[in-house]
Design goal:
With 134 residues, the protein is mainly alpha-helical. The protein is 81% helix and 0% strand. Pfam families: DUF4345.
Length: 134
């Protein structure tokens, strides 16, 4: 059980590095990565959304020390990520396929994060069974 818990912590820590890094970059540099010129309002909105992404990554990291005890937080964060992924998927219908980086983000949002949530639930349930907690 401890090995599985440790592996989950490592994988979540590594995967959460992506939203932290991308979010921090977006907060600091705005849309410089894309090279697009946008309005001041669009730039502000981009940085706001980057801040949310940064926050989501940090909150996933906050579950790491006692990951088996943070099922509600993990599920809430997963829900937020999946909703964002569904919004990104909807954008495909209106604007077409984006870059491979965005498609990779969609995969993380709609596949990787829910799988990690299921894994976290498994670890939490095994912990509860072993230690008699609900």
């Amino acid at each position: 059980m401890q090995q599985e818990r440790r592996r989950l912590q490592q994988v979540v820590g590594l995967v959460a590095l992506l939203p932290v890094a991308v979010g921090l970059y977006g907060v600091l540099f705005g849309q410089a990565l894309t090279g697009d010129t946008v309005s001041i309002s669009a730039e502000s909105h981009f940085r706001f959304l980057s801040g949310l992404l940064l926050g989501v990554g940090i909150l996933f990291w906050s579950t790491l020390p006692s990951i088996e005890l943070h099922t509600n937080r993990f599920r809430l964060l997963t829900l937020l990520v999946v909703i964002g992924g569904l919004a990104r998927l909807t954008a495909f219908a209106f604007t077409g396929l984006p870059s491979l980086f965005m498609i990779g983000g969609l995969f993380i949002e709609l596949v990787v994060t829910p799988v990690l949530c299921l894994w976290q639930t498994r670890v939490a349930n095994r912990y509860a069974d072993a230690f008699g907690v609900a």
